[in-house]
Amino acid sequence: MTSYIIEPDRAGVAGEVGAPGDKSIGHRAAILAALASGEVSITGMGRGEDNRRSLGAAEALGAEISVHRGAGGGEALRVHGVGLDGLAAPRGPIDCGNAGTAMRLLAGILAGQNFGSELVGDASLSRRPMRRIGDPLTAMGASVTGREGQRPGEIYPPLSVRGPRRGRLAGLDWTLDVASAQVKSAILLAGLFAEGAVSVSEPGPTRDHTERMLAYLGAPVSRDKGRVTLDPAGWDRRLEPRPLAVPGDPSAAAFAVAAGLVAGGGDIAVRGVCVNDTRTGFFDALATMGARIERRNERHEGGEPVADLHVPASAGEGLRGAEIGGDVVVRAIDEIPILAVVAARAAGDTDFRDAEELRYKESDRIATTTEMLRGFGVEVEEHAGGFRVRGRGAKPLAPARVDAAGDHRIAMSAAVAALAADGPTRVDDVDNVATSFPEFPAALGSLGAQIRTVD
Ligand code: S3P
Hints:
It contains 13 helices and 24 strands. By secondary structure, it is an alpha/beta fold.
């Protein structure tokens, strides 16, 4: 088990870093490239274990993948897509590791196949609820079964998925009861193999990378307010083998931005970050709290808006508490732990509401975030649907010993909080950072933070 030791330094942090390839977009790139009718080049794919699981699944289903040097000198993947009718039965269970997105998106694809597949995951993934995809996919005519567990009526991995015995899946008109891009995506991906149209209505604006990438590859996707439809009528059922570029991950960039805010020092810049509106809740929340993050050099790459982020040295001064709820929470769902760290440095209370979904992430993030903050001496109150953080303003945090509980985002949030403490902090069980941001300790170190990884 690996730990981080962080020694805060009065000089704070400053400098410029890149962000790893966006994890959500990387999963979709791996899966959709495998289904394209020809060779697809992918640039910018993150090196995290989660994305490797999706690439491994693509290979297990018959797509060949090779690594090349890309045009700009970076690495490019070449995926030989097999076409929508070309997937092969995997030889054994597909291991999704810690990646809930990989499992839920793959279930959508596998629901349309005439062979059966088994999806397995690590201990954390095996505790995550899967009925949210099982119900709609079953309603389309697939068979999705899982393990019974903690909650009656719920299903958990391993999952067995197979398409209908005869013919294609049926179309579906589905309303999500929780705002979940993974569930929306599983249905849209199953829709690639359906006879009729699939429509998904969502209660809040969840990330839209699946529909963007499907449209970019030529699939008949349309959007009307909160409802996305994939209607195959008249479509030749081909995904065009167009090149895919994965922009930087705003959920990873958030740690460098927050480091600047909580530790001060100098300006921080993060290059090439995806600024799709469905992902920018963290930055909107910071603006409400009084911290303005500038966007420079805004552009489009591979169907997604991208910008360089700039955090002025003074941005963390004058942070104030705020009410964080509704669509901001949906659009910042993975950034709530690090936003809570920023809230601990604000003047006044910050209330996080409408955040029940955090209980079903890599850990119960309401429990792990509040426990982590308490470790730093911050007063926190849990309530139904969220928690309230009593900001300490400029008062330093207490040095802590934190158990990251195997959750990458808790580990990285604690490491950033440690920069605002008045003594050294130890964060245990941080190996899981490799799932999304293996370069994290090096990136934080390059900004001047004193962080060491120890076994
Ligand atoms: C993701 C969607 C979100 C997010 C997860 C990635 C995706 O999950 O928390 O990290 O790539 O679609 P839900 O859709 O379950 O909210």
